[in-house]
Amino acid sequence: MVVDSNELRKIYENSPFNNLLGIKLAEFEEGKVVYSLETRPSHLNVNQAIHGGVYFTLLDSVMGATIRSVVKLPIVTINTSINYFAPVANGETMLAKAKIIQEGGSIVTAEGTIEDENGHVFAKATGTFKKIRNI
Q1: Which residue, 53, 56, 77, 118, is most buried by CB atoms nearer than 10 A?
Q2: Residue 80: which of 97, 103, 57, 102 has the closest Cα?
Q3: What's the pTM?
Q4: CATH homologous superfamily for the domain 5-131
């Protein structure tokens, strides 16, 4: 089901899972999506750093939203590879953005990055997604 950009924005602003984690849609344009997350104690792991699953969720979400903003079709994640570069402390704001690096007929690959407000990179991921045409 193809939907327009305004409908997509609403879908991502109202994502139950993103809202549960506190992920906010900071920017939404075709091909340019930015998520922000102000970290809080519930995001911490046993080492008192932000859990790697939070990084992964943020990257998967921003790559998926960026792709869908362009293809206008539902998508599903096929595979993701992530590299963690630095820990994020409680109270810091994480910013996630992505870009499409390859689009085929049914498969799209994107690269996502998590940074702080000063551009310091915490993690990068590459994700492969499948377009779903029959929903």
Answers
A1: 56
A2: 57
A3: 0.93
A4: Hotdog Thioesterase (3.10.129.10)
